[in-house]
Design brief:
Length: 255
């Protein structure tokens, strides 16, 4: 890994008043959560078609039943995962007063667990910490719905009788409008965007770094494999986020 590139990203951070970090599944692989598209990733084990919004709507009870079976086999239950050095480095950026927000495609709550304030984390694909009632919109801790499902209430229901759904965005489901609006505004107004651990293929989330570049911010990408946007970035580092980000933060703090 080129120390010159680490130095350049540190310089960008030092020159910046508002850094936005855009994260994908790759920021959490070092916490033991597989990403979707790397070898051994989630799509090697499960069929993405089972995670379509219409599948849920057609038969929510069957959807919860399948998810419960997966959970019992240890699939898709990441509630015990802990933040890794990449999450902690991003939280440090906030402590230093440099961070405007973290825009994440992840649903694992690890940025908040690492210390980023809830209000500074924009969750484009929701969170698996919560469930939402499709009738009245009430939010509940996910554990409450899992408990109900385990006791045979399939699908688990809200007090109002409405069906509960994990508050994560399924394929074919619109992204939460408020989160998208905030993400766009953050991308337009930041002066530095750092992408960490995203293949940048999932649209529309992947358009966020493009917006920031078009509106004049610097763009840095830290990802294990090349992405489609490497060619428009100011600095690209191919490597592990949990190794690179702490090195960048060391440089930032030494100045
Ligand atoms: P992706 O699977 O498409 O891409 C992940 C990228 O991260 C890959 O390009 C890979 O090379 C890179 N990567 C893997 N480990 C890395 C590491 N240690 N350091 C740096 N880079 C690393 O994921 P995506 O772009 O986030 O998009 C897919 C969707 O995955 C998102 O919608 C997200 O909601 C969902 N997802 C989330 C989680 C989670 O919440 N932790 C886990 C799996 C998938």
């Amino acid at each position: 890994m080129a120390s010159k590139d680490i130095e350049r990203i540190a310089d960008f951070i030092l020159d910046s008043d508002s850094v936005v970090v855009f994260t994908g599944a790759g920021v959490s692989t070092e916490s033991g959560i597989p990403d979707f598209r790397s070898p051994g990733g989630i799509w090697d084990k499960y069929d993405p078609n089972d995670f379509r919004y219409e599948v849920f709507i057609n038969d929510p009870g069957e959807y919860w039943k399948k998810r419960l079976e997966m959970r019992k086999m240890g699939g898709f239950d990441f509630s015990g995962a802990e933040p890794n050095p990449a999450h902690l480095a991003i939280a440090e950026l906030e402590e230093l007063g440099k961070l405007s927000s973290v825009i994440t495609q992840n649903v694992d709550n690890l940025h908040q667990k690492a210390g980023n304030k809830d209000e500074n984390v924009i969750e484009l694909h929701g969170s698996n910490k919560r469930v939402r009632c499709l009738e009245c919109g009430s939010l509940y801790p996910a554990e409450m719905a899992w408990d109900k499902a385990e006791k045979g209430e399939l699908p688990p229901k809200c007090e109002c009788g409405g069906v509960l759904k994990t508050d994560t965005v399924l394929f074919g489901e619109p992204l939460p409008r408020e989160a998208v609006k905030r993400a766009k505004s953050e991308a337009e107004n930041c002066d530095l965007m750092i992408v960490v651990g995203s293949s940048l293929v999932v649209y529309p989330a992947s358009s966020v770094p493009q917006i920031s570049k078009k509106t004049g911010s610097a763009l840095c990408i830290i990802n294990l494999q090349p992405t489609n946007f490497d060619s428009i970035a100011d600095v690209v580092i191919h490597g592990k986020a949990g190794e690179i980000l702490p090195k960048i933060m060391d440089r930032v703090k030494k100045r």
